[in-house]
Structures are given as structure tokens and as C-alpha cells.
Design a protein that fits this description.
about 60 residues, mainly beta, Ubiquitin-like (UB roll), two-stranded antiparallel ribbon, 1 helix, 7 strands, about 10% helix, about 40% strand, Mopterin_synth/thiamin_S_b, Beta-grasp_dom_sf, ThiamineS protein, ThiS/MoaD-like
Length: about 60
Amino acid sequence: MKVTLKGTNQVTELSGNKKVSNILSELELNPETVIVVKEGQILTHDKIVKDHENIEIISVVSGG
């Protein structure tokens, strides 16, 4: 699968079907600071992303 980190435009290739939570773990990303999107839909951490699919990871920023 192709994983794009929005903002940095870093692209990573991962193989195999994986749960979103496992993808974030493998990329050493905190699941509380990002959202994962596939085809415009936000994915929950238990969803499985298939090997041939592309996803985007978007960093969530909060300010006051």
C-alpha cells in the first residue's frame, strides 16, 4: 500500500493487509495526533487497509 503523510508529502510503501492501528505503530505515529483517510473517508483504527489501497495520514493540530 502507498501511505502519504500530508504536510510533508513523504510517501511510504508498506506490504500486506494491515489494521490502521498497526500502520500507525509501524510508522511510529501517535494515533491521537493523526487521522487516516482513504478515498475521502476517515478510517477508524480497527479498519483493515488492503495491500493495493492508498491512504493519507493527516496530522491534527490544535491551538488556542
